[in-house]
Structure to design on (660 residues):
């Protein structure tokens, strides 16, 4: 592909089919305004991002303005494209977890679970996943939902000029990340959910600590609630802003809090339960305002529901104490009994003793399944979970080998970001920030 | 699907652990037999009633892993999609995007586009699959039917080179505009460089031995 070298994007002005175009990247505005002042028609195109602090990471918004009114809004994405889907094709099915957890980096557990569910579907072992593993998955997902919504409140508030919410939000997020560290050894990108179950059991004293954290969080969530709900400045910035009704959501494929804020009680946890969600009592939160404030209220309500689910998980975990957390089939299950120690997750000493000192067969088995991996029957599968941002769907194709043939993530951030134009065009430029913050896109998920 | 090759691994049984017993099943070729089970028969019947050209348009109906896949001829894709969306008995209001898959060994149908559909009204899912030859990678765009497919089709074009006819702005979306090639195709190398580690050289991921 050839590149037009006569085009200089940094030239101060150039002729195009649409007339003379002036580029402004700083410098002497007086000089420029005298030059532009001569032309009759003027349209201003502003590039907001990809390094703008209010665009949620590396999102580039290309806004056409008339005064302060946005007449056209487009998104430029791809600045964080890392080829994760391609990379998984060169690793084993289990190693794939380590890659996909890095897509939507605020919701790693959801990426892992959706991916593992699709692999388990291909293996035909969905029904064999131990109950305790399913409970741990649900608990980790709901904890993750809290930590993800907390970033949404925190950074969303920051982008609108509210500096306090982020302190409350990140304090609570820290509580959740500490639990993650205790359970998986890592605070983010844990690769904790594995095909067949989870990497290792939760530590013995973790359950009581999680209960305690739930009690604390239920109290501390009130800080942001009393600060923002009904706050006149917050309402002015979010009420009737970023409007997208049910019809718009449907045609644009928008799911998650945006859809629920349009009045549709659609939540995969209720409508198509997975990982045993049918065993938990919780409500689907909806509002009918279809605006940024409604989405805020939906997310706020979901925090309490997540706490309810986590507490039920703790009860289940007490009941299932000592039950397996990995599928019984030794040809799929990770051979090592992993454990978390001071330097993170690793092989347990008893397992090392067994393979290095006691059983040659165990060593061979360990070596084969770790380096070569297991084979997955040929075919394709689609598995979806309700992530904090909507439906995270994974389309997995196997050719019968030890590596995925194709892994495709249907990322809710990627899909929902399409609604930017529908939400922003015709509004004020300041409201673009509010609308994008209410979509809550994570660029790691958008660009993958 | 693909031919097994390379030095490592067991051919045939698919056993990787040494204990034996795991049976490897090949990809199903051709249609599944009725009854399909679950709500799949209803979907097939309703579509057949609403769309007289069903037998001509649907190349295969595959039920695998508890999922229904309709293999559609590309000429009929838009018509089938509209009926799936609008028919009051089907009501697939939402399309969850497009996923491309490249099968270089399937001659004259190398490129596949996979559309997962969702009906919220009926709480059902179905998958549409279209396959086209590499030499003529054209598939009609479904943006007119489900506007949300806009970016998904751009991504599939970007990654696989499938051209969605009728798409208003089919440009690259993740890769830079002047990028050459379509990275997710199987003939596009992963890249990477060998890395030296403790005196040993570890080759790039795509150059390492593969257990097939």
């Amino acid at each position: 592909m050839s590149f037009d070298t006569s085009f200089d994007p940094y030239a101060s002005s150039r002729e195009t089919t649409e007339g003379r175009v002036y580029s402004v990247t700083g410098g002497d505005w007086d000089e420029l305004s005298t030059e532009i002042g001569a032309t009759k028609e003027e349209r201003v195109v502003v590039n907001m991002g990809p390094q703008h602090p209010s665009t949620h990471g590396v999102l580039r918004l290309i806004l056409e303005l008339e005064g302060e009114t946005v007449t056209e809004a487009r998104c430029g994405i791809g600045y964080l494209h890392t080829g994760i889907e391609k990379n998984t094709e060169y690793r084993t099915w289990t190693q794939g977890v380590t890659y996909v957890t890095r897509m939507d980096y605020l919701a790693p557990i959801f990426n892992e679970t959706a991916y593992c569910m699709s692999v388990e579907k291909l293996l035909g072992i969905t029904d064999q996943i131990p109950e305790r593993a399913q409970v741990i998955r649900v608990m980790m997902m709901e904890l993750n939902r809290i930590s993800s919504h907390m970033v949404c409140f925190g950074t969303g508030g920051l982008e609108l000029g509210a500096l306090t919410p982020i302190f409350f939000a990140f304090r609570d997020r820290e509580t959740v990340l500490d639990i993650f560290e205790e359970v998986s050894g890592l605070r983010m990108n844990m690769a904790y959910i594995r095909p067949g179950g989870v990497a290792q059991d939760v530590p013995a004293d973790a359950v009581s600590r999680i209960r305690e954290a739930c009690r604390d969080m239920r109290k501390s969530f009130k800080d942001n609630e009393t600060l923002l709900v009904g706050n006149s400045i917050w309402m002015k910035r979010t009420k009737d802003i970023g409007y997208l009704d049910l019809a718009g959501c449907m045609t644009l494929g928008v799911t998650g809090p945006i859809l629920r804020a349009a009045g549709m009680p659609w939540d995969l946890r209720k409508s198509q339960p997975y990982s045993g969600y049918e065993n938990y009592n919780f409500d689907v939160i909806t509002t009918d305002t279809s605006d940024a404030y409604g989405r805020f209220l939906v997310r706020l309500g979901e925090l309490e529901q997540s706490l309810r689910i986590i507490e039920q998980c703790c009860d289940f975990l007490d009941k299932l104490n000592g039950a397996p957390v990995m599928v019984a089939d030794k040809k799929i299950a990770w051979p090592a009994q992993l454990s978390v120690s001071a330097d993170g997750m690793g092989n347990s000493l008893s397992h090392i003793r067994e393979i290095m000192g006691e059983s040659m067969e165990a060593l061979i088995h360990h070596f084969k399944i770790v380096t070569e991996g297991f084979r997955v029957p040929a075919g394709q599968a689609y598995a979806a979970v309700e992530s904090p941002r909507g439906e995270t769907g994974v389309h997995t194709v196997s050719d019968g080998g030890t590596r995925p043939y194709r892994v495709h993530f249907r990322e809710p951030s990627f899909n929902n970001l399409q609604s930017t134009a529908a939400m922003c065009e015709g509004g004020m430029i300041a409201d673009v920030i509010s609308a994008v913050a209410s979509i809550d896109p994570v660029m790691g998920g958008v660009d993958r | 699907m693909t031919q097994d090759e390379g030095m490592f691994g067991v051919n045939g049984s698919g056993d990787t652990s040494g204990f034996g017993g795991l049976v490897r099943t090949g990809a199903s070729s051709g249609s599944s037999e009725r009854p399909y089970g679950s709500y799949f028969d209803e979907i097939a019947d309703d579509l057949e009633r609403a769309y007289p050209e069903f037998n001509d348009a649907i190349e295969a109906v595959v039920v695998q892993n508890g999922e229904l896949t309709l293999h559609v001829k590309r000429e009929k894709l838009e018509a089938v999609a509209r009926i799936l969306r609008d028919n009051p008995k089907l009501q697939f209001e939402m399309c969850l995007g497009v996923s491309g898959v490249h099968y270089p060994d399937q001659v004259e149908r190398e490129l596949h586009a996979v559309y997962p559909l969702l009906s919220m009204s009926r709480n059902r899912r179905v998958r549409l699959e279209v396959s086209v030859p590499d030499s003529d990678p054209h598939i009609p765009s479904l943006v007119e039917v489900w506007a949300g497919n806009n970016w998904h089709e751009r991504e599939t074009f970007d990654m696989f080179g499938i051209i969605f006819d009728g798409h208003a702005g089919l440009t690259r979306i993740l890769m830079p505009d002047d990028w050459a090639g379509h990275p997710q195709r199987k003939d596009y190398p992963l890249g990477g460089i060998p890395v030296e580690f403790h005196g040993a050289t570890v080759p790039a991921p795509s150059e390492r031995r593969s257990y097939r």
Observations:
- The mean pLDDT of chain A is 87.
- The longest helix of chain A spans residues 131-159.
- Chain A touches chain B through 63 residues (CB under 8 Å).
